[in-house]
Amino acid sequence: MSGSPASAAAPRTVDLLAALDPEQRAAADAPLGPVCILAGAGTGKTRTITHRIAHMVVDRGVGPDQVLALSFTARAAGELRGRLRAMDVPGVQARTFHSAALRQLHYFWPSVAGGPLPRTERSKIPQMVQAAGRLRLRPDRAELRDLTAEVEWAKASLITPADYARAAVAGGRETTLTAQTVGRLYAAYEEVKSESGVLDMEDLLLLTAAMIEEHGWVATEIRSRYRHFVVDEYQDVNTLQQRVLDGWLGERDSLCVVGDPHQTIYSFAGASPRYLLDFPRRYPAAAMVRLVRDYRSTPQVVTLANRLVRAGAGTGLVAAAPAGPAPVWLECDSEADEAAAVVARIRSLLARGTPASRVAVLYRTNAQSETYEAALGAARIAYLVRGGEKFFARREVVTATRLLRGAIRSADTDRPAGLADAVADVLGALNWRPDEPTAGSGAEREQWENLAALHRLAADLAAREPAAGLAEFAAELADREAHEHLPTVEGVTLSTLHAAKGLEWDAVFLVGLTEGTVPLVHARSAEQIEEERRLLYVGVTRARTRLVLSWALTRGEGGGRPRRPSRFLDDLRPLRRGAAADRS
Fold it and tell me: 540 partner at 20 to 30 Å CA-CA among 197, 333, 403, 503?
């Protein structure tokens, strides 16, 4: 783990901060001590922290291997590494909390524990099933998922099995089992896991924190390696992650955090914005910078977003993008009518030239996706469900990757010379052709789009590296899979609001905006209601240009119990009851 000493890089003539706006530049150029960047949606936070890191390395003599940049997803970490490489600043460690912890455990654990690190299980379900059996419980799949989430919340909040019942009651946690029973299940889960000799994802952080706190030589070596920290999405940090970060920091304060309290949407999982909001109190000398220029969304979208979170003058976003169309309010009689109206508008956008990959349908719960999958499939519009099966795990992609590796080993001399043509030739074994199909089911169209995405990656690599062949392409795919750097698939995105965080599209359809869904019926306390409001804010701010907000007055075709539009829309719509809304 010992890093090389910091060494000043050769001076450059390019001003790394020249392309930044005044607020971004102030954040990137702030001293190496504590820095807090309050970055609203679309304000260029990734650009800002990338330039800050590059400025630290190139202009301030910080060794790149002494910087640890932390994010909450492998995709975000990969994007940060890619941007730094493009700026000719390789060597910076950009990782998730869990990835960084696992790397350190692999290095130190044999010396600390006298043996190899136990295997890490990404899913808690197998151990949870065994634990439930010991208590003679028979939870179904949905209950297992919810109970697993409870254990994750407890561990992220540093709550032990013995303390779970008290903490759950105090926190207003709702489960199908009593708090006492869940506490016993949590204890049984930990026993099963220990007997099986495996770790879960939270254990990686717990063990890392304990290792640093209990072994001074480990703390010294880690802190000599990493001297400067950058934490993205700091509003989502939980108590356990903060404990690990404190261990990495020690008594030092070279910490730059970036976050937006308006996008705190994971409190149910233990995330807390208090670490972001209390940063100035913890570090009184911290540089505080607020990014407010929204380069993503039109003034019409930004105005709606500001009104939604009741951001007044001086606290809300300021639109920097050109003007666009007004948001559309779409009131429908039934859910089927709503889906049909949304798909009709999507078809119109596609006909006018908007790529399908720049359109998204966002909803509150996973169960809402089925209606839109069926409607888009019937309209022969390709789609992908975000949060579903990972791209590189899809059957046709796995098969294509295997065929590509086989082609590298073959002695076939008749294959086309260019990389893109060679890949197309290999994909032909799966009956794929470059010409876009005009017929076929939604599933068939999705398979074609997934293979087309591989072909586009080959063309992109050939454009960057004309001499690249199948071996280089296979290596590119392996790197993308490892870092979850997924290709763009030409299909409409279907996603929950939670899974959409951090993404953006030209056109966004926010659907199912009724009471009981947004906010969710289980949200009762003022804090829970406000989190639901912030979740809708995240959805609104995903839109670059076009925003459609829709709801259905009844669930089924034949009427039934009437439903009310979400309370969050009351102060946003021009008029009540659809007078200013489109009807379908």
Answer: 333
* Alpha helices (H) in 226-270, listed in sequence order: 239-249
Tell me which amino acid residue 272 is.
S
Tell me if 440 sits within 8 A of 380, measured CB to CB: yes
- With contact defined as beta carbons under 8 Å apart, do 43 and 295 qualify? yes
Q: What is the DSSP string of 338-356?
A: HHHHHHHHHHHHHHTT--G
Question: At 38, which helix (H) or strand (E)?
Answer: strand 35-39
**pLDDT beneath 70, residues of the chain:** 1-14, 312-314, 388-391, 411-413, 436-446, 483-489, 556-561, 575-584
Quick: pLDDT tens for 409-422. Answer: 876 667 788 899 99
Closest CA to 227 of 68, 46, 417: 68
Determine what percent of the chain falls in helix, strand and coil, rounding each to the nearest 5.
50, 15, 35
pLDDT at residue 580, as a whole number: 40
* Virtual torsion, Cα 464, 470, 476, 477, nearest 10 deg: 130
* C-alpha to C-alpha distances, 144 to 153, 185, 186, nearest whole angstrom: 14, 11, 12
- Short-list 333, 346, 307, CA closest to 582: 333
The rounded distance, in Å, linking the Cα atoms of 57 and 64 is: 6
Identify whether the C-beta of residue 70 lies closer than 8 Å to the C-beta of residue 97.
Answer: yes
Type and span of the H or E element at 383: strand 383-385
> CA separation (Å) from 38 to 290, 363, 432?
5, 27, 47
Counts of helices then strands in the chain (DSSP H, E): 21, 17
User: What is the signed CA dihedral for 380, 382, 385, 388, rounded to 10 degrees?
Assistant: 100
Q: What are the Cα distances from residue 63, in Å, to 7, 208, 254, 312, 564?
A: 6, 24, 14, 42, 57
Q: Which tokens belong to 212?
A: 């640093």
Closest CA to 131 of 195, 197, 180, 179: 195
* pLDDT tens, position by position, 365-394: 877 887 888 888 888 898 888 876 556 777
User: Helices 419-427 and 470-482 meet at what angle, rounded to 10?
Assistant: 80
